[in-house]
Request: fold
Amino acid sequence: MSEYKIAIVTGANKGLGFAIVKGLCQNFKGSVYLTSRNEDRGKNACQELQKLGYTPQYYQLDVTDEKSVFNLCSFLKSRKIDLLINNAGVLFLKDSKESKINQAEQTLLINFFALVNFTEAILPFMNDHSTILNISSSSGHLSRIPSEKLRKEISNPNLSLTDLKSLMKKYIDSVKFNREILDGWGDSPYVVSKVGLNAYTFILNRRFKERGILVNCVHPGYVMSDMTRGAGTVSPEQAAEVVMKLALTPETGGLYVWHNGDTVPWDGPDPRGYIDGKPL
Reply:
């Protein structure tokens, strides 16, 4: 019955996550859970939506905190999830004062390792024929990894989650020894984290194909947000439009969808060139 359907959005107290929750309150026939690391900010976000006539539910969730993840799983108990949108993430801008290794460790922790661990913990609560949508980036396109050898390893259809985690840990080691450029990873922790996220998306989709669980990833565009200090080319509301379509009416699983709604080959040419018209 539709009233028992559940959608969960992580990192949703502001920006794109907030716009996604608003869109789901308008279009998803069921309960929509807005989650956030900071409880006060999350509850305030829910109140904002309630003033507009929507009825989101709230639950505190820090995907990097095992106890927080456990508490959400305990809360769900025998309930099943029909839609999970992994939106929580972090980006260090170029003028960040954090050390290179700290940026790499934090970016991979939040954008990859914590997301994977949270998703794996929540999988037992996913309904058959449900949907998981990971909010990615143009940075998640495989072409952003300079090394052909690494690209082949990451895109290997037989790659296991254990193998993928090992590769992400190797990247951290490369940064520790100041070898990330020499080893072919490039100079952006954000790129590596989002490439890892996309690779996980496809692994997960293969794993749960028989249960009809569709797992996709989307580049929503350069979204104006606090994370980008207001820089960007699309508003959170505009970016949420492509997210809504892929979340609510996915054609299939294992897709990487660009901000214009086109499905792009993850291991093909960089879509920033042939879709966005940017010199590469």
